[in-house]
Design brief:
alpha+beta, four-stranded parallel sheet, globular, 20 helices, 615 residues
Length: 615
C-alpha cells in the first residue's frame, strides 16, 4: 500500500544521479563477496567516508544468551512460535546498558507504570523558586537573551560557543549506538558527565576523553531510590575537582525522562515540568489534556480491569486499539475487531505486561514455566522469575485511518522554533511496526500545516514550553489525530534526517535547551530528499552473514546501510509472526518518488543468507 502523499504531483524526475533498478541489481551483484583462494568469502572493508554515518562502523554489542533465549520465549507467548531473534528490540528499547539491565531495573518499572514509585512533581511555584536560586549560581545565560536568540548561522555559532566549558549531566547514555551524542557534545566543548549503572559501556568514554566523568549508581532498584541517589551525586558535583557545577541535565532515553525532569526541577535547572512529562508519558492523560484544551482527539477509555471493557466497547466500538498507557516498544499493543477478541487480548496482554522484565536490555515475558530454548525450540533450563510485578493500566481507543507521520519539534520560550513533518510508510499490523520514512514530506502543504499545528498545540496542552520533541500523528479522514508524544529527540534515523535535509542538529538543540540557551535552529532550504527503510526478514531461521547489507554502502546515493542482526542470530519471518528487522537503509536524492523507490528497491533486492528454521 502506497503512502497517500505519493499521489500528489511532484517535480519531474530529471537530472537524477540515482541509479535505475537495473543498475542497482547489477551493482549489488558485483558487490557480493566472492569466495577467495581459501574457499571463504572475504569480508567487505568498505571505502566510503565515515562522515556519512553518525558513528564509525564497529561490531555490534553482543547480547548475552539469556537475553536471546528470553526473547524467543517472549515471542512464543505472543505469536505462538518457539523462538525469536532479538532484531528490532535492540533499537526499540533504548536501555541504559545491555549487559546490566535486570529484572529490578528502574526502567522495568517505568515501562509498566508511570510515574511508578517516583514522588509527585513539585509545584510550579517551587520549581520557579528553585530555578531563581540556581540561576544566581550559574554563569551560563549571562549573555542577553536578544543576543543569545539571534537568528541564522551567526546566532547558531554564538549559541554553540556558549556551551564551551559547560558541564552537562546525561542520565543513562542509551545503547552504544548513541555514542555520536557524546562525541558531538565534546566537539562543542561540553564537559559531559554520564550517570549509569556499574559496568556501562559509557565508562570507557572517560579514558577515551570523550566525557569528563562517569558516575556509577545502582540502577537495579525502584525509580524513586534511583532518583534519590542521582540527586545526591549531582549535588556533590558542585564541589567536584574535575568538573564545574552542572548547568543542565538531559537524556535521550524515553524511560529515563521522568527521573530527569524531577532532577532538573528539584535542582533548579532548565527543563520541562515533571507534571508535563507525566502527562505525556501517560497516553490517557495526554488525550484528556488535549480534550480540555479543545483539541481534536480520539475516542478512548481507561481500562484498569476486565469490568472496564464493557464501557470501552460502548465508547469506542470496533475496530479499536488496546495499548498500555505508559508502555514502550509497541509491547502489548493490539488491534482488535470484536468483543470476543478484545476480552481475549486484554487478559493476554495484561498478563504479558505485568510479567515482563527488562533483562540485558531486552523485554522478556516471564511465566512460571518459562524455559530457555535452543534453535529447535527445545527447553534447556529454567529462567529466574521476578520477585514482584507491577499493575499495568490500559487504554482502548478508536483505530485511526490514514497515513502516519512524525513531527519533530523544537520549542523555546513557549513557542515552536522548528517543526517539520516526516512521512512514515504503512505500519505492520496488528503490531504497528514501522517501515519506511521520507523527508521532506510529500503531503500537500495544507495537510502539513494542520499536522504541525496539532503537534505544537498538543505539546502546549501538556504544559511544555521548551525542549526537543518527537510527536507521532496520523492524518485521518477527519484531519490530524495524535498517536503519542515523546518528550525527547527521536531515536533511529531522526537526528541524521534533519541534519542532512535541513541542516538542523537536534542533539545540539537538546543541549541548548538543557542549559537554558534559547533555541533558534538555523534551518536551511531542503538540501535533498532522504528516505530510509527498515528491512523485514523474509523467512525464519539463523542469519549466516550480513555482508550483503554492508555491500550496499558502496552504492551511489546510499547514506548508510546498517545490519540490525548479526551472524548467528535467530530471526522470525512473516510465516511465523512479526518479521525481524534485519537492516536499516538510508538514501538521498533529488526527487522524492525516485528516492523512496530507490530505498525500497534496495530493500526488496537485499538477500541476507538465512538457514531455514528446522521444523
Amino acid at each position: 500500500t502506497l503512502h497517500p502523499a505519493r499521489a500528489h504531483s511532484q517535480p519531474p524526475r530529471t537530472g537524477l544521479s540515482l541509479p535505475t533498478p537495473e543498475d542497482t541489481e547489477r551493482s549489488m551483484d558485483s558487490l557480493v563477496p566472492r569466495e577467495g583462494a581459501d574457499g571463504q568469502a572475504p569480508r567487505m572493508t568498505g571505502s566510503r567516508l565515515r562522515a556519512k554515518t553518525e558513528n564509525p562502523s564497529k561490531p555490534r554489542t553482543t547480547l548475552p544468551e539469556d537475553a536471546r533465549e528470553g526473547l524467543r520465549s517472549l515471542n512464543l507467548e505472543r505469536v505462538h512460535i518457539n523462538y525469536k531473534g532479538m532484531g528490532g528490540f535492540e533499537r526499540f528499547y533504548e536501555s541504559s546498558e545491555w549487559k546490566n539491565v535486570g529484572k529490578h531495573h528502574f526502567m522495568t518499572e517505568q515501562l509498566i507504570a508511570v510515574p511508578g514509585t517516583l514522588r509527585p512533581p513539585i509545584s510550579e511555584e517551587a520549581r520557579q523558586e528553585n530555578m531563581k536560586e540556581e540561576q544566581a549560581q550559574q554563569t551560563v545565560g549571562k549573555v542577553p537573551t536578544w543576543l543569545a536568540a539571534a537568528p541564522g548561522p551567526e546566532g547558531q555559532l554564538l549559541r554553540r560557543g556558549l556551551l564551551n566549558g559547560v558541564t552537562i549531566v546525561f542520565f543513562t547514555p542509551g545503547y552504544e549506538g548513541k555514542r555520536f551524542i557524546y562525541e558531538h557534545a565534546k566537539s562543542l566543548g561540553v564537559a559531559s558527565v554520564i550517570i549509569d549503572g556499574p559496568g556501562s559501556w559509557a565508562e570507557a568514554l572517560v579514558e577515551e576523553k570523550v566525557i569528563k566523568k562517569f558516575i556509577a549508581i545502582d540502577m537495579d532498584r525502584d525509580a524513586e531510590a534511583v532518583y534519590q541517589d542521582a540527586l545526591k551525586v549531582m549535588q556533590e558535583l558542585s564541589d567536584d575537582p574535575i568538573v564545574s557545577r552542572p548547568a543542565g541535565i538531559c537524556t535521550f532515553c524515553e524511560l529515563s525522562v521522568p527521573i530527569v525532569a524531577r532532577l532538573a526541577n528539584e535542582l533548579g535547572l532548565p527543563g520541562s515540568p515533571a507534571e508535563a512529562i507525566d502527562i505525556a508519558r501517560n497516553k490517557h492523560k495526554t488525550r484528556q489534556a488535549m480534550k480540555d484544551a479543545g483539541l481534536p482527539t480520539v475516542a478512548n477509555t481507561l481500562i484498569r480491569k476486565t469490568a472496564d471493557l464493557a464501557e470501552g466497547i460502548a465508547t469506542v466500538g470496533f475496530p479499536s486499539v488496546l495499548k498500555p498507557i505508559s508502555g514502550a516498544a509497541s509491547l502489548g499493543v493490539k488491534k482488535v475487531h470484536s468483543e470476543e477478541e478484545l476480552y481475549q487480548a486484554f487478559q493476554h496482554v495484561k498478563d504479558e505486561m505485568e510479567s515482563t522484565v527488562v533483562s540485558s536490555g531486552a523485554l522478556i515475558k516471564t511465566t512460571k514455566s518459562m524455559e530457555k530454548l535452543d534453535e529447535q525450540g527445545n527447553p534447556t533450563a529454567d529462567l529466574q522469575l521476578p520477585e514482584k510485578n507491577l499493575e499495568c493500566h490500559f487504554m482502548l481507543e478508536e483505530y485511526l485511518d490514514g497515513p502516519e507521520v512524525d513531527v519533530d519539534v523544537v520549542m523555546s520560550e513557549g513557542e515552536s522554533q522548528y517543526c517539520e513533518v516526516v512521512d512514515n510508510g504503512p505500519t505492520v499490523e496488528p503490531y504497528f511496526n514501522e517501515t519506511w520514512g521520507l523527508c521532506p514530506s510529500m503531503l500537500d502543504q495544507s495537510a502539513q500545516k494542520e499536522l504541525e499545528m496539532v503537534a505544537i498545540a498538543s505539546l502546549k496542552s501538556c504544559g511544555f514550553t521548551s525542549g526537543v520533541f518527537h510527536v507521532e500523528l496520523k492524518y485521518t479522514s477527519r484531519g490530524p489525530r495524535l498517536i503519542e508524544i515523546n518528550a525527547r529527540m527521536g531515536g533511529g534515523q531522526v537526528r541524521e534526517t534533519h541534519r542532512r535535509v535541513y541542516g538542523v542538529d537536534l542533539v545540539e538543540e537538546t543541549l541548548f535547551a538543557s542549559v537554558g540557551i534559547p533555541c533558534r535552529p538555523a534551518k536551511t532550504e531542503a538540501k535533498c530528499f532522504l528516505a530510509y527503510n527498515y528491512v523485514n526478514s523474509k523467512q525464519s531461521g539463523k542469519v549466516l552473514s550480513t555482508e550483503q547489507v554492508e555491500a550496499i554502502n558502496r552504492l551511489p546515493g546510499v547514506v548508510y546501510a546498517k545490519p540490525l542482526v548479526q551472524e548467528g542470530d535467530l530471526i522470525t519471518g512473516p510465516e511465523h509472526g512479526m518479521p525481524t528487522w534485519i537492516a536499516d537503509i538510508m538514501v538521498e536524492g533529488e526527487d522524492p518518488n525516485a528516492t523512496l523507490d530507490y530505498v525500497l528497491d534496495l530493500s526488496n533486492k537485499l538477500d541476507v543468507p538465512i538457514k531455514p528454521m528446522q521444523s
